[in-house]
Design goal:
Number of helices: 20
Radius of gyration: 25 Å
Bound molecules: adenosine-5'-triphosphate
Shape: globular
Low-confidence stretches: none
Strand content: 15-25%
CATH topology of one domain: D-amino Acid Aminotransferase, Chain A, domain 1
CATH superfamily of one domain: DNA ligase/mRNA capping enzyme
Structural class: alpha+beta
Helix content: 25-40%
Largest sheet: 8 strands, mixed
Length: 578
Amino acid sequence: MRFATLVEYFERLEGTTKRLEMFDILSELFREVGAEEIAPVVYLLEEQLAPPFRGIEIGMAEKLVLRAIAKATGVDESRVLTLYKKLGDPGLVVERLKEAPARGKLTVASVYARLMEIAEQSGEGSVERKVQGLSELLAEVGPKEARYIARFVMGRLRLGIGDPTILDALSKAGAGDRSWRPDLERAYNLCSDLGLVARTLRERGLEGIRAFRVRVGHPIRMALAERLPTAEEIIRRLGRCAVEVKIDGFRCQVHKQGDAVEIFSRNLERTTPMFPDIVEGVRRQVAAREAIFEGEAVAVNEETGEIYPFQVTVQRKRKHGIEEMAREYPLVLYAFDLLYCDGADYTPEPYEKRRRMLERMIRPGERLKLAEMIVTEDPKAVERFFAHSIERGLEGIVAKRLDAPYQAGARGFHWIKLKRSYKGELSDTIDVVLVGYFHGRGSRARFGIGALLGAVYDEQSDTFKTIAKIGSGLSEEEWVRIRELLDGCRMAHRPARVDSLIEPDVWVEPRYVVTVLADEITKSPVHTCGKRDDEPGYALRFPRVVGWIREDKRPEDTNTVREILQMYEMQKKVKLAG
Ligand code: ATP
Protein backbone atom coordinates (compact mmCIF):
# COMPACT_ATOMS: atom_id res chain seq x y z
CA MET A 1 0.00 0.00 0.00
CA ARG A 2 1.23 3.47 -0.79
CA PHE A 3 1.92 5.49 2.31
CA ALA A 4 -0.11 8.27 0.69
CA THR A 5 -3.14 5.97 0.74
CA LEU A 6 -2.67 5.28 4.44
CA VAL A 7 -2.48 9.01 4.98
CA GLU A 8 -5.88 9.41 3.36
CA TYR A 9 -7.23 7.03 5.99
CA PHE A 10 -5.47 9.02 8.71
CA GLU A 11 -7.22 12.14 7.47
CA ARG A 12 -10.60 10.47 7.54
CA LEU A 13 -9.97 9.09 11.03
CA GLU A 14 -8.88 12.46 12.24
CA GLY A 15 -11.96 14.12 10.80
CA THR A 16 -14.50 12.00 12.60
CA THR A 17 -16.01 12.64 15.98
CA LYS A 18 -17.91 9.35 16.00
CA ARG A 19 -16.44 6.10 17.19
CA LEU A 20 -18.65 3.98 14.96
CA GLU A 21 -17.44 5.82 11.92
CA MET A 22 -13.91 5.25 13.10
CA PHE A 23 -14.66 1.55 13.31
CA ASP A 24 -15.97 1.49 9.72
CA ILE A 25 -13.00 3.40 8.34
CA LEU A 26 -10.60 1.05 10.10
CA SER A 27 -12.25 -2.11 8.85
CA GLU A 28 -12.10 -0.73 5.32
CA LEU A 29 -8.41 -0.02 5.83
CA PHE A 30 -7.75 -3.53 7.17
CA ARG A 31 -9.46 -5.06 4.16
CA GLU A 32 -7.38 -3.00 1.77
CA VAL A 33 -3.93 -3.45 3.27
CA GLY A 34 -1.94 -6.60 2.47
CA ALA A 35 -0.77 -9.23 4.99
CA GLU A 36 2.83 -8.05 4.89
CA GLU A 37 1.92 -4.48 5.79
CA ILE A 38 -0.91 -4.94 8.25
CA ALA A 39 1.34 -5.11 11.34
CA PRO A 40 3.10 -1.78 10.60
CA VAL A 41 -0.29 -0.21 9.87
CA VAL A 42 -1.63 -1.36 13.23
CA TYR A 43 1.45 -0.05 15.04
CA LEU A 44 1.21 3.32 13.33
CA LEU A 45 -2.48 3.54 14.26
CA GLU A 46 -1.46 2.83 17.84
CA GLU A 47 1.06 5.67 17.47
CA GLN A 48 4.09 3.48 18.07
CA LEU A 49 6.68 1.56 16.06
CA ALA A 50 6.31 -1.61 18.07
CA PRO A 51 4.53 -2.73 21.22
CA PRO A 52 5.86 -0.92 24.31
CA PHE A 53 7.56 -4.02 25.70
CA ARG A 54 10.05 -3.94 22.83
CA GLY A 55 11.18 -0.53 23.98
CA ILE A 56 11.63 0.90 20.46
CA GLU A 57 11.28 4.65 20.30
CA ILE A 58 12.16 7.23 17.72
CA GLY A 59 13.99 9.25 20.36
CA MET A 60 13.92 12.66 18.66
CA ALA A 61 13.13 15.74 20.67
CA GLU A 62 11.20 18.64 19.18
CA LYS A 63 14.38 20.56 18.35
CA LEU A 64 15.76 17.71 16.27
CA VAL A 65 12.55 17.21 14.35
CA LEU A 66 12.50 20.91 13.50
CA ARG A 67 16.10 20.68 12.37
CA ALA A 68 15.22 17.74 10.10
CA ILE A 69 12.31 19.75 8.68
CA ALA A 70 14.66 22.64 7.95
CA LYS A 71 17.10 20.31 6.21
CA ALA A 72 14.40 18.55 4.20
CA THR A 73 12.83 21.75 2.96
CA GLY A 74 15.96 23.84 2.59
CA VAL A 75 14.46 26.53 4.82
CA ASP A 76 16.38 28.32 7.52
CA GLU A 77 16.05 26.70 10.99
CA SER A 78 15.00 29.97 12.60
CA ARG A 79 12.17 30.37 10.09
CA VAL A 80 11.02 26.82 10.81
CA LEU A 81 11.01 27.63 14.50
CA THR A 82 9.03 30.83 14.01
CA LEU A 83 6.46 29.02 11.93
CA TYR A 84 6.28 26.23 14.50
CA LYS A 85 5.64 28.75 17.26
CA LYS A 86 2.85 30.19 15.18
CA LEU A 87 1.20 26.94 14.07
CA GLY A 88 2.05 24.76 17.07
CA ASP A 89 2.06 21.63 14.93
CA PRO A 90 5.21 20.17 13.32
CA GLY A 91 3.01 18.48 10.72
CA LEU A 92 1.49 21.71 9.46
CA VAL A 93 4.92 23.34 9.43
CA VAL A 94 6.51 20.77 7.17
CA GLU A 95 3.41 20.54 4.99
CA ARG A 96 3.42 24.26 4.41
CA LEU A 97 7.13 24.47 3.69
CA LYS A 98 7.23 21.57 1.29
CA GLU A 99 6.70 22.02 -2.37
CA ALA A 100 5.88 19.31 -4.94
CA PRO A 101 5.70 16.36 -5.48
CA ALA A 102 2.09 16.25 -4.43
CA ARG A 103 2.06 12.54 -3.65
CA GLY A 104 5.05 10.41 -2.78
CA LYS A 105 5.64 6.93 -4.12
CA LEU A 106 6.90 5.29 -0.96
CA THR A 107 4.98 2.31 0.41
CA VAL A 108 3.85 1.87 4.00
CA ALA A 109 6.49 -0.84 4.43
CA SER A 110 9.32 1.39 3.26
CA VAL A 111 8.27 4.38 5.38
CA TYR A 112 7.97 2.08 8.36
CA ALA A 113 11.39 0.56 7.70
CA ARG A 114 12.95 4.02 7.44
CA LEU A 115 11.34 5.09 10.73
CA MET A 116 12.67 1.92 12.35
CA GLU A 117 16.13 2.71 11.06
CA ILE A 118 15.93 6.14 12.68
CA ALA A 119 14.79 4.61 15.96
CA GLU A 120 17.57 2.06 15.97
CA GLN A 121 20.41 4.59 15.70
CA SER A 122 22.35 4.70 18.93
CA GLY A 123 25.74 5.66 20.26
CA GLU A 124 28.10 8.29 18.98
CA GLY A 125 26.82 10.44 16.16
CA SER A 126 23.36 8.91 16.39
CA VAL A 127 21.66 12.28 16.84
CA GLU A 128 22.98 13.51 13.50
CA ARG A 129 22.13 10.25 11.80
CA LYS A 130 18.58 10.48 13.11
CA VAL A 131 18.21 14.03 11.82
CA GLN A 132 19.69 13.02 8.48
CA GLY A 133 17.42 9.95 8.20
CA LEU A 134 14.30 11.93 8.98
CA SER A 135 15.16 14.82 6.68
CA GLU A 136 15.74 12.41 3.79
CA LEU A 137 12.45 10.72 4.46
CA LEU A 138 10.57 14.01 4.69
CA ALA A 139 12.18 15.17 1.47
CA GLU A 140 11.03 12.11 -0.42
CA VAL A 141 7.35 12.15 0.46
CA GLY A 142 4.54 14.49 -0.50
CA PRO A 143 3.51 17.40 1.78
CA LYS A 144 0.55 15.63 3.31
CA GLU A 145 2.53 12.49 4.03
CA ALA A 146 5.23 14.64 5.59
CA ARG A 147 2.57 16.17 7.83
CA TYR A 148 1.75 12.80 9.37
CA ILE A 149 5.34 11.59 9.55
CA ALA A 150 6.41 14.72 11.43
CA ARG A 151 3.50 14.34 13.84
CA PHE A 152 4.21 10.67 14.37
CA VAL A 153 7.87 11.28 15.09
CA MET A 154 6.97 13.88 17.69
CA GLY A 155 4.40 11.56 19.25
CA ARG A 156 1.57 13.80 18.15
CA LEU A 157 -0.37 11.78 15.64
CA ARG A 158 -3.39 11.84 17.95
CA LEU A 159 -5.72 9.62 16.04
CA GLY A 160 -7.11 8.54 19.40
CA ILE A 161 -7.92 4.97 18.45
CA GLY A 162 -8.30 2.42 21.23
CA ASP A 163 -7.26 -1.22 21.06
CA PRO A 164 -10.85 -2.48 21.38
CA THR A 165 -11.81 -0.47 18.28
CA ILE A 166 -8.89 -2.00 16.37
CA LEU A 167 -9.92 -5.49 17.51
CA ASP A 168 -13.53 -4.88 16.43
CA ALA A 169 -12.39 -3.55 13.08
CA LEU A 170 -10.08 -6.53 12.48
CA SER A 171 -13.01 -8.82 13.18
CA LYS A 172 -15.26 -6.90 10.84
CA ALA A 173 -12.66 -6.93 8.08
CA GLY A 174 -12.30 -10.72 8.38
CA ALA A 175 -15.72 -12.01 9.41
CA GLY A 176 -17.99 -9.16 8.31
CA ASP A 177 -19.08 -8.56 11.90
CA ARG A 178 -17.68 -8.49 15.44
CA SER A 179 -17.98 -12.23 16.04
CA TRP A 180 -14.23 -12.89 16.00
CA ARG A 181 -13.56 -10.30 18.65
CA PRO A 182 -13.38 -12.74 21.63
CA ASP A 183 -10.80 -14.92 19.85
CA LEU A 184 -8.79 -11.93 18.73
CA GLU A 185 -8.91 -10.48 22.21
CA ARG A 186 -7.72 -13.71 23.76
CA ALA A 187 -4.74 -13.79 21.39
CA TYR A 188 -3.99 -10.16 22.17
CA ASN A 189 -4.18 -10.80 25.91
CA LEU A 190 -1.60 -13.55 25.56
CA CYS A 191 0.95 -11.66 23.45
CA SER A 192 0.21 -7.93 24.01
CA ASP A 193 1.08 -7.29 20.37
CA LEU A 194 -1.83 -6.17 18.16
CA GLY A 195 0.36 -6.07 15.05
CA LEU A 196 1.24 -9.72 15.52
CA VAL A 197 -2.42 -10.59 16.05
CA ALA A 198 -3.41 -8.74 12.86
CA ARG A 199 -0.69 -10.38 10.80
CA THR A 200 -1.50 -13.85 12.14
CA LEU A 201 -5.15 -13.32 11.29
CA ARG A 202 -4.29 -12.35 7.74
CA GLU A 203 -1.79 -15.12 7.21
CA ARG A 204 -3.38 -18.01 9.06
CA GLY A 205 -6.97 -17.02 9.60
CA LEU A 206 -9.06 -17.65 12.69
CA GLU A 207 -7.35 -21.00 13.23
CA GLY A 208 -4.02 -19.26 13.62
CA ILE A 209 -5.58 -16.92 16.15
CA ARG A 210 -7.04 -19.79 18.13
CA ALA A 211 -3.66 -21.52 18.20
CA PHE A 212 -2.05 -18.61 20.12
CA ARG A 213 -0.10 -19.70 23.18
CA VAL A 214 1.73 -17.98 26.00
CA ARG A 215 5.38 -17.31 25.08
CA VAL A 216 8.28 -16.38 27.28
CA GLY A 217 9.41 -12.87 26.34
CA HIS A 218 5.93 -11.72 25.30
CA PRO A 219 4.23 -10.06 28.26
CA ILE A 220 0.76 -11.28 29.07
CA ARG A 221 -1.82 -8.58 29.66
CA MET A 222 -2.35 -8.46 33.36
CA ALA A 223 -5.31 -9.70 35.36
CA LEU A 224 -6.98 -6.98 37.42
CA ALA A 225 -9.07 -6.93 40.56
CA GLU A 226 -12.62 -5.85 41.27
CA ARG A 227 -13.58 -4.36 44.62
CA LEU A 228 -16.15 -5.00 47.34
CA PRO A 229 -16.75 -2.98 50.50
CA THR A 230 -16.58 -5.66 53.19
CA ALA A 231 -15.12 -9.03 54.09
CA GLU A 232 -18.62 -10.44 54.36
CA GLU A 233 -19.49 -9.52 50.81
CA ILE A 234 -16.28 -11.05 49.60
CA ILE A 235 -17.06 -14.37 51.27
CA ARG A 236 -20.66 -14.22 50.07
CA ARG A 237 -19.35 -13.85 46.55
CA LEU A 238 -16.40 -16.25 46.59
CA GLY A 239 -17.16 -18.71 49.37
CA ARG A 240 -13.99 -20.42 50.50
CA CYS A 241 -11.20 -18.41 48.97
CA ALA A 242 -7.56 -17.43 49.22
CA VAL A 243 -6.77 -14.09 50.82
CA GLU A 244 -3.42 -12.50 50.11
CA VAL A 245 -1.76 -9.39 51.44
CA LYS A 246 -1.98 -6.43 49.08
CA ILE A 247 1.39 -4.79 48.80
CA ASP A 248 1.86 -1.37 47.31
CA GLY A 249 4.91 -1.43 45.08
CA PHE A 250 5.70 -2.14 41.44
CA ARG A 251 3.79 -4.89 39.78
CA CYS A 252 6.28 -7.09 37.97
CA GLN A 253 5.65 -9.78 35.41
CA VAL A 254 8.85 -11.76 35.31
CA HIS A 255 9.91 -13.77 32.26
CA LYS A 256 12.79 -16.18 32.68
CA GLN A 257 14.48 -18.16 29.96
CA GLY A 258 17.62 -19.78 31.27
CA ASP A 259 19.71 -16.93 32.63
CA ALA A 260 17.91 -14.31 30.57
CA VAL A 261 15.40 -12.46 32.72
CA GLU A 262 12.98 -9.73 31.63
CA ILE A 263 10.54 -7.77 33.76
CA PHE A 264 7.43 -5.98 32.52
CA SER A 265 5.37 -3.36 34.31
CA ARG A 266 1.63 -3.05 34.89
CA ASN A 267 1.31 -1.31 31.51
CA LEU A 268 3.59 -3.84 29.84
CA GLU A 269 6.67 -1.74 29.44
CA ARG A 270 10.03 -3.41 29.76
CA THR A 271 11.34 -2.35 33.16
CA THR A 272 14.19 -4.86 33.54
CA PRO A 273 16.92 -2.20 33.99
CA MET A 274 15.11 -0.86 37.05
CA PHE A 275 15.48 -4.14 38.94
CA PRO A 276 19.04 -5.54 38.87
CA ASP A 277 18.54 -7.00 42.36
CA ILE A 278 15.33 -8.80 41.44
CA VAL A 279 16.84 -10.10 38.20
CA GLU A 280 19.71 -11.61 40.19
CA GLY A 281 17.25 -13.05 42.69
CA VAL A 282 15.24 -14.68 39.92
CA ARG A 283 18.38 -16.38 38.58
CA ARG A 284 19.20 -17.72 42.02
CA GLN A 285 15.82 -18.56 43.40
CA VAL A 286 13.65 -19.80 40.55
CA ALA A 287 13.85 -23.53 40.19
CA ALA A 288 12.78 -23.68 36.56
CA ARG A 289 14.50 -23.12 33.24
CA GLU A 290 11.60 -21.20 31.79
CA ALA A 291 8.98 -19.37 33.75
CA ILE A 292 6.53 -16.48 33.74
CA PHE A 293 5.26 -15.30 37.10
CA GLU A 294 4.01 -12.15 38.80
CA GLY A 295 4.61 -10.35 42.02
CA GLU A 296 4.85 -6.97 43.65
CA ALA A 297 8.30 -5.48 44.22
CA VAL A 298 8.78 -3.30 47.30
CA ALA A 299 11.59 -1.87 49.36
CA VAL A 300 12.09 -3.74 52.60
CA ASN A 301 14.09 -2.71 55.62
CA GLU A 302 16.70 -5.44 55.83
CA GLU A 303 17.20 -5.03 59.57
CA THR A 304 13.58 -5.25 60.61
CA GLY A 305 11.97 -6.96 57.63
CA GLU A 306 9.43 -4.14 57.47
CA ILE A 307 7.97 -3.13 54.17
CA TYR A 308 8.66 0.52 53.42
CA PRO A 309 5.89 2.85 52.25
CA PHE A 310 5.49 3.37 48.52
CA GLN A 311 7.32 6.71 48.65
CA VAL A 312 10.52 4.81 49.42
CA THR A 313 9.97 2.08 46.84
CA VAL A 314 9.14 4.56 44.12
CA GLN A 315 12.62 6.10 44.33
CA ARG A 316 13.79 3.16 42.25
CA LYS A 317 12.15 4.85 39.30
CA ARG A 318 15.13 6.70 37.95
CA LYS A 319 17.55 6.62 35.07
CA HIS A 320 20.84 6.80 36.94
CA GLY A 321 22.22 5.45 40.16
CA ILE A 322 20.06 2.35 40.16
CA GLU A 323 22.85 0.11 41.47
CA GLU A 324 23.39 2.46 44.43
CA MET A 325 19.68 2.59 45.06
CA ALA A 326 19.55 -1.19 44.96
CA ARG A 327 22.23 -1.31 47.66
CA GLU A 328 20.55 1.28 49.83
CA TYR A 329 16.98 0.11 49.44
CA PRO A 330 17.00 -3.41 48.07
CA LEU A 331 13.66 -4.63 46.83
CA VAL A 332 11.89 -7.86 47.57
CA LEU A 333 9.55 -9.38 45.05
CA TYR A 334 6.49 -10.86 46.71
CA ALA A 335 5.36 -13.43 44.16
CA PHE A 336 1.64 -14.09 43.88
CA ASP A 337 0.94 -15.86 40.60
CA LEU A 338 2.38 -18.33 38.15
CA LEU A 339 1.51 -18.17 34.45
CA TYR A 340 3.98 -20.50 32.77
CA CYS A 341 6.61 -22.99 33.81
CA ASP A 342 8.87 -25.21 31.70
CA GLY A 343 6.61 -25.80 28.74
CA ALA A 344 3.34 -25.76 30.69
CA ASP A 345 0.87 -22.90 30.27
CA TYR A 346 -0.64 -22.34 33.69
CA THR A 347 -3.00 -19.53 32.72
CA PRO A 348 -6.00 -21.87 32.25
CA GLU A 349 -5.27 -23.70 35.54
CA PRO A 350 -7.15 -22.90 38.76
CA TYR A 351 -5.56 -20.51 41.26
CA GLU A 352 -4.93 -23.30 43.76
CA LYS A 353 -2.80 -25.25 41.33
CA ARG A 354 -0.91 -22.15 40.17
CA ARG A 355 -0.14 -21.17 43.74
CA ARG A 356 1.01 -24.68 44.66
CA MET A 357 3.33 -24.78 41.69
CA LEU A 358 4.59 -21.26 42.46
CA GLU A 359 5.44 -22.36 45.99
CA ARG A 360 7.38 -25.26 44.59
CA MET A 361 9.17 -23.18 42.01
CA ILE A 362 10.51 -20.46 44.28
CA ARG A 363 13.44 -21.46 46.43
CA PRO A 364 13.74 -19.84 49.84
CA GLY A 365 15.92 -16.75 49.76
CA GLU A 366 16.13 -13.03 50.28
CA ARG A 367 14.98 -11.42 47.06
CA LEU A 368 11.94 -13.49 46.21
CA LYS A 369 9.31 -14.34 48.72
CA LEU A 370 5.78 -15.59 48.45
CA ALA A 371 2.97 -13.15 49.15
CA GLU A 372 1.46 -14.21 52.46
CA MET A 373 -1.82 -15.98 52.06
CA ILE A 374 -4.54 -17.75 54.01
CA VAL A 375 -7.43 -19.86 52.77
CA THR A 376 -10.70 -19.33 54.57
CA GLU A 377 -14.46 -19.11 54.34
CA ASP A 378 -14.86 -17.13 57.51
CA PRO A 379 -15.47 -13.39 57.14
CA LYS A 380 -14.00 -12.85 60.62
CA ALA A 381 -10.75 -14.51 59.56
CA VAL A 382 -10.68 -12.25 56.48
CA GLU A 383 -11.19 -9.23 58.70
CA ARG A 384 -8.41 -10.28 61.04
CA PHE A 385 -6.06 -10.82 58.14
CA PHE A 386 -7.07 -7.44 56.73
CA ALA A 387 -6.51 -5.68 60.06
CA HIS A 388 -3.16 -7.36 60.43
CA SER A 389 -2.11 -6.19 56.95
CA ILE A 390 -3.14 -2.63 57.71
CA GLU A 391 -1.21 -2.65 60.98
CA ARG A 392 1.86 -3.60 59.01
CA GLY A 393 1.35 -0.56 56.81
CA LEU A 394 0.16 -2.58 53.85
CA GLU A 395 -2.60 -1.49 51.54
CA GLY A 396 -5.14 -4.18 52.33
CA ILE A 397 -5.91 -7.58 50.89
CA VAL A 398 -6.75 -9.28 47.63
CA ALA A 399 -9.14 -12.23 47.82
CA LYS A 400 -8.86 -14.81 45.07
CA ARG A 401 -11.27 -17.41 43.78
CA LEU A 402 -9.70 -20.81 44.24
CA ASP A 403 -10.93 -22.34 41.00
CA ALA A 404 -10.43 -19.35 38.70
CA PRO A 405 -7.97 -19.36 35.80
CA TYR A 406 -5.60 -16.44 35.31
CA GLN A 407 -7.80 -13.96 33.47
CA ALA A 408 -5.37 -12.19 31.20
CA GLY A 409 -6.29 -8.61 30.37
CA ALA A 410 -9.50 -8.71 32.38
CA ARG A 411 -10.87 -7.16 35.52
CA GLY A 412 -13.16 -9.61 37.23
CA PHE A 413 -14.44 -10.99 40.51
CA HIS A 414 -11.83 -13.75 40.43
CA TRP A 415 -9.70 -11.21 42.33
CA ILE A 416 -11.33 -8.83 44.79
CA LYS A 417 -9.45 -6.08 46.53
CA LEU A 418 -10.31 -4.57 49.87
CA LYS A 419 -8.33 -1.48 50.73
CA ARG A 420 -7.75 0.69 53.70
CA SER A 421 -10.58 3.17 53.69
CA TYR A 422 -10.41 6.86 54.15
CA LYS A 423 -12.89 7.59 56.88
CA GLY A 424 -15.92 9.55 55.80
CA GLU A 425 -14.71 9.73 52.26
CA LEU A 426 -14.88 7.46 49.30
CA SER A 427 -13.15 4.25 50.22
CA ASP A 428 -10.82 4.48 47.28
CA THR A 429 -9.18 6.96 45.01
CA ILE A 430 -10.28 7.18 41.41
CA ASP A 431 -8.11 7.39 38.34
CA VAL A 432 -9.40 9.69 35.61
CA VAL A 433 -8.01 10.64 32.25
CA LEU A 434 -7.84 14.31 31.38
CA VAL A 435 -9.81 15.22 28.27
CA GLY A 436 -9.84 18.99 28.46
CA TYR A 437 -9.34 22.04 30.63
CA PHE A 438 -10.97 25.38 31.47
CA HIS A 439 -9.12 28.68 31.44
CA GLY A 440 -10.41 29.58 34.83
CA ARG A 441 -11.38 32.80 36.46
CA GLY A 442 -10.25 34.15 39.79
CA SER A 443 -6.74 33.77 41.02
CA ARG A 444 -5.66 31.07 38.65
CA ALA A 445 -6.71 32.88 35.50
CA ARG A 446 -3.18 34.19 35.17
CA PHE A 447 -1.99 30.62 34.55
CA GLY A 448 -4.67 30.19 31.89
CA ILE A 449 -5.95 27.08 33.58
CA GLY A 450 -8.47 26.82 36.36
CA ALA A 451 -9.92 23.35 36.17
CA LEU A 452 -9.47 20.00 34.48
CA LEU A 453 -12.13 17.89 32.82
CA GLY A 454 -11.69 14.27 33.90
CA ALA A 455 -13.23 11.17 32.37
CA VAL A 456 -13.35 7.46 33.05
CA TYR A 457 -13.20 4.61 30.56
CA ASP A 458 -16.28 2.82 29.30
CA GLU A 459 -15.21 -0.65 28.19
CA GLN A 460 -18.43 -1.41 26.39
CA SER A 461 -18.28 1.45 23.95
CA ASP A 462 -14.50 2.00 24.10
CA THR A 463 -15.12 5.66 24.90
CA PHE A 464 -14.32 8.06 27.71
CA LYS A 465 -17.19 9.51 29.77
CA THR A 466 -16.78 12.64 31.82
CA ILE A 467 -17.13 12.42 35.58
CA ALA A 468 -15.51 15.46 37.16
CA LYS A 469 -14.40 19.01 36.83
CA ILE A 470 -11.33 19.12 39.01
CA GLY A 471 -10.13 22.42 40.38
CA SER A 472 -7.88 21.58 43.29
CA GLY A 473 -5.08 19.45 44.58
CA LEU A 474 -2.24 20.92 42.53
CA SER A 475 0.34 23.50 43.55
CA GLU A 476 0.79 26.65 41.47
CA GLU A 477 3.86 25.19 39.77
CA GLU A 478 1.95 22.02 39.03
CA TRP A 479 -0.89 23.95 37.41
CA VAL A 480 1.62 25.63 35.15
CA ARG A 481 3.26 22.32 34.29
CA ILE A 482 0.03 20.50 33.68
CA ARG A 483 -1.09 23.22 31.35
CA GLU A 484 2.12 22.87 29.36
CA LEU A 485 1.62 19.14 29.10
CA LEU A 486 -2.00 19.50 28.08
CA ASP A 487 -1.17 22.15 25.52
CA GLY A 488 1.17 19.62 24.01
CA CYS A 489 -1.82 17.45 23.18
CA ARG A 490 -4.50 20.03 22.34
CA MET A 491 -7.17 19.01 19.88
CA ALA A 492 -9.11 21.25 17.55
CA HIS A 493 -12.35 19.43 18.31
CA ARG A 494 -13.73 16.91 20.77
CA PRO A 495 -11.77 13.66 20.37
CA ALA A 496 -13.93 10.98 18.75
CA ARG A 497 -13.81 8.69 21.76
CA VAL A 498 -14.74 11.34 24.31
CA ASP A 499 -18.41 11.50 25.20
CA SER A 500 -19.20 14.79 26.89
CA LEU A 501 -22.03 17.21 27.44
CA ILE A 502 -19.61 19.77 28.78
CA GLU A 503 -17.52 21.87 26.44
CA PRO A 504 -14.18 22.72 28.02
CA ASP A 505 -12.21 25.73 26.75
CA VAL A 506 -9.57 23.38 25.41
CA TRP A 507 -10.01 19.79 24.32
CA VAL A 508 -7.03 17.50 24.74
CA GLU A 509 -6.20 14.06 23.54
CA PRO A 510 -7.00 11.57 26.34
CA ARG A 511 -3.48 10.75 27.40
CA TYR A 512 -2.70 11.83 30.96
CA VAL A 513 -4.14 9.94 33.89
CA VAL A 514 -4.36 11.44 37.38
CA THR A 515 -5.57 9.99 40.64
CA VAL A 516 -8.27 11.94 42.43
CA LEU A 517 -9.77 11.75 45.84
CA ALA A 518 -13.38 12.81 46.23
CA ASP A 519 -15.90 13.04 49.03
CA GLU A 520 -18.47 10.94 47.27
CA ILE A 521 -20.04 9.94 44.02
CA THR A 522 -23.25 11.80 43.28
CA LYS A 523 -25.82 11.75 40.50
CA SER A 524 -25.34 14.50 38.01
CA PRO A 525 -27.14 15.63 34.90
CA VAL A 526 -24.05 17.21 33.38
CA HIS A 527 -21.67 14.25 33.24
CA THR A 528 -21.91 11.33 30.84
CA CYS A 529 -20.46 8.65 33.15
CA GLY A 530 -23.27 6.12 33.60
CA LYS A 531 -25.79 8.37 31.90
CA ARG A 532 -28.62 6.63 30.11
CA ASP A 533 -31.33 8.32 28.04
CA ASP A 534 -33.14 10.57 30.51
CA GLU A 535 -31.36 9.19 33.57
CA PRO A 536 -28.63 11.38 35.06
CA GLY A 537 -25.00 10.39 35.04
CA TYR A 538 -22.53 10.29 37.90
CA ALA A 539 -20.05 12.84 39.17
CA LEU A 540 -17.36 13.15 41.82
CA ARG A 541 -18.06 15.58 44.65
CA PHE A 542 -15.13 17.79 45.66
CA PRO A 543 -12.58 16.01 43.55
CA ARG A 544 -8.92 16.88 44.10
CA VAL A 545 -5.82 15.57 42.43
CA VAL A 546 -3.54 13.49 44.62
CA GLY A 547 0.04 13.08 43.51
CA TRP A 548 0.98 13.75 39.94
CA ILE A 549 0.37 12.19 36.53
CA ARG A 550 0.22 8.40 36.63
CA GLU A 551 2.81 7.37 34.11
CA ASP A 552 2.08 3.71 34.71
CA LYS A 553 -1.46 4.02 33.43
CA ARG A 554 -2.83 4.33 29.95
CA PRO A 555 -6.12 6.15 29.36
CA GLU A 556 -7.89 2.80 29.18
CA ASP A 557 -6.53 1.94 32.63
CA THR A 558 -8.58 4.55 34.45
CA ASN A 559 -11.43 3.37 36.60
CA THR A 560 -14.28 2.28 34.40
CA VAL A 561 -17.89 3.41 34.30
CA ARG A 562 -18.86 -0.02 35.58
CA GLU A 563 -16.58 0.39 38.60
CA ILE A 564 -17.99 3.83 39.33
CA LEU A 565 -21.49 2.39 39.39
CA GLN A 566 -20.30 -0.35 41.75
CA MET A 567 -18.60 2.19 43.98
CA TYR A 568 -21.79 4.24 44.04
CA GLU A 569 -23.72 1.18 45.22
CA MET A 570 -21.03 0.38 47.80
CA GLN A 571 -21.19 3.91 49.09
CA LYS A 572 -24.95 3.68 49.52
CA LYS A 573 -24.55 0.55 51.61
CA VAL A 574 -21.82 2.04 53.77
CA LYS A 575 -24.01 5.10 54.36
CA LEU A 576 -26.96 2.94 55.37
CA ALA A 577 -24.77 0.89 57.67
CA GLY A 578 -23.35 4.06 59.22
P1 ATP B 1 -5.65 -1.81 39.09
O1 ATP B 1 -4.27 -2.37 39.00
O2 ATP B 1 -6.65 -2.77 39.66
O3 ATP B 1 -6.11 -1.08 37.88
P2 ATP B 1 -4.47 0.13 40.74
O4 ATP B 1 -3.29 0.17 39.86
O5 ATP B 1 -5.03 1.39 41.28
O6 ATP B 1 -5.67 -0.66 40.12
P3 ATP B 1 -5.00 -1.27 43.01
O7 ATP B 1 -6.43 -1.02 42.77
O8 ATP B 1 -4.43 -0.66 44.21
O9 ATP B 1 -4.09 -0.84 41.85
O10 ATP B 1 -4.81 -2.86 43.08
C1 ATP B 1 -4.35 -3.75 42.12
C2 ATP B 1 -2.85 -3.91 42.19
O11 ATP B 1 -2.43 -4.42 43.45
C3 ATP B 1 -2.26 -4.93 41.24
O12 ATP B 1 -2.12 -4.41 39.95
C4 ATP B 1 -0.93 -5.27 41.88
O13 ATP B 1 0.06 -4.39 41.41
C5 ATP B 1 -1.13 -4.98 43.34
N1 ATP B 1 -1.04 -6.16 44.22
C6 ATP B 1 -0.40 -6.17 45.41
N2 ATP B 1 -0.47 -7.34 46.00
C7 ATP B 1 -1.18 -8.15 45.20
C8 ATP B 1 -1.60 -9.50 45.27
N3 ATP B 1 -1.31 -10.28 46.31
N4 ATP B 1 -2.32 -9.99 44.24
C9 ATP B 1 -2.63 -9.22 43.17
N5 ATP B 1 -2.25 -7.93 43.05
C10 ATP B 1 -1.54 -7.39 44.04
